[in-house]
Amino acid sequence: MSPQGDARVSCRPTNLYPSPKLKPRAWLRHTPYLNGKCRFGRTSRQHVECRQPGTAATLAIRIGARLSCTPDIDINDINKESNMSKNIVFLDRATLPADYAFRFSFPHTLAEHPQTAPEDTAARLAGAHIAATNKVRITAEHLAANPQLEMIAVCATGSDHIDTAAARAAGVAVCNVPAYGSEAVAEHAFMLMIALMRNLPAYRRDLRAGLWQNSPFFCHFGAPIRDLHGKTLAVFGRGGIGGTLAGYARAFGMHVVFAEHKNAAVVREGYVSFDTALQQADVLSLHCPLTPQTRHLIGEAELRTLKPGAVLINCGRGGLVDETALLAALKYGTLGGAGLDVLEQEPPKSGNPLLKADLPHLIITPHIAWASDSARQKMCDTVAANIEAFAAGKPQNLVL
Question: Where do the D-isomer specific 2-hydroxyacid dehydrogenase catalytic domain residues begin and end (predicted)?
């Protein structure tokens, strides 16, 4: 394999317009297919031309220098920054489908690590121009130690594990994958909702204990069973997932309300106040990012505000819910149930009190709501497209 791995250098007719945010010197660095023997020349036409030896293809890029290819002068001898090979590193490749092959049309090297411990992150970013991460944290310290880094490709929608402010200050683009799992996560949340409203975990426990087998009747009555029809679903987060879940709920005859931001001075059209949503909810489902404003969005006071028997669903981020308060509400309060696909610490420690609780009205799944086969395929396709677009000078799905 060549030093560039699977990279293939080509030159084909196209027009590429790099981001105006890039400094002029960096524009060339973000332009694909410029390879081979080249020289710089001044021109007033505000573009660059590249003619690969033996081809008639031309690339035009809006920058202030003219670049013409010849067979005897290496561009690297003129300007190191114009070397178009990109070093790409995947920090937690094992979280993505093993059979998905990432291929890029521009010259590159590709390093894939199954997982990366926090103490190894800085070293694995060394020399990388593009870093792909699903959940590995990239901090201000990592960015300061790696000034060559140009892009962070987030293999997810949420970017709370990236110091986006530091990335912005360093001029590092952060691109995510919006809406790839709207159906997958909404279906998972709906599954948790149905299971808890009908108390499936409790009946499964009774079945294992032999209560049905020893029943004097044809059935076994245990925990309450509640229909979704006519109940109220309160959704916090009106993005793709929240909107999709609302559609599913309406199809089952539920009334849906969207909760306004906590302590908002004005309630927008189509929303109800946060406290009103809590008071009306038979089911409360969280689908919002984790920010300083939403951390512990649901705590002791909010759990007390929910009506008796209400069900809480969290397929967003673990930090949205105060786990200590939640466990107390499940054990000693009137909360009807909780369905969690996320926890504050992931992976959780073996002694996590929620995992040890073994409560029949608590369902915990291991952060897999997003991970349907079709959603993971779409996510990988978008990550690849984000990297390709960035290398072409047309960054997309920017978080910053």
Answer: 115-398
- Could you confirm whether 198 is annotated as catalytic? no
Condensed to tens digits (0 to 9), the pLDDT of residues 279-309 reads 999 999 999 999 999 999 999 999 999 999 9
User: By C-alpha distance, which of 359, 297, 370 is closest to 330?
Assistant: 359
DSSP alpha helix (H) spans, the chain: 24-29, 75-78, 121-125, 140-145, 164-170, 182-197, 200-208, 240-251, 274-280, 300-305, 323-332, 353-357, 373-391
Active site residue 346: yes
- Same domain? For 331 and 191 the reply is yes
Structural domain includes residue 344:
yes
Catalytic annotation present for 208: no
Q: Which of 124, 317, 323, 376 is catalytic?
A: 317
Indicate the pTM of the whole model: 0.74
Catalytic residue selected from 103, 168, 304, 346: 346
User: For residue 311, what is the DSSP state?
Assistant: E
**What's the domain range around 291?**
182-213+221-369
Comparing 47-61, 136-150, 293-307, the range with the smallest average pLDDT is 47-61
Tell me the HSE value of 321 on the side-chain side, using a 13 A CA sphere: 28
Indicate if the pLDDT at residue 352 is higher than 70: yes
Catalytic residue among 129, 287, 367, 376: 367
For the chain, what's the residue count? 400
CATH number at residue 298: 3.40.50.720
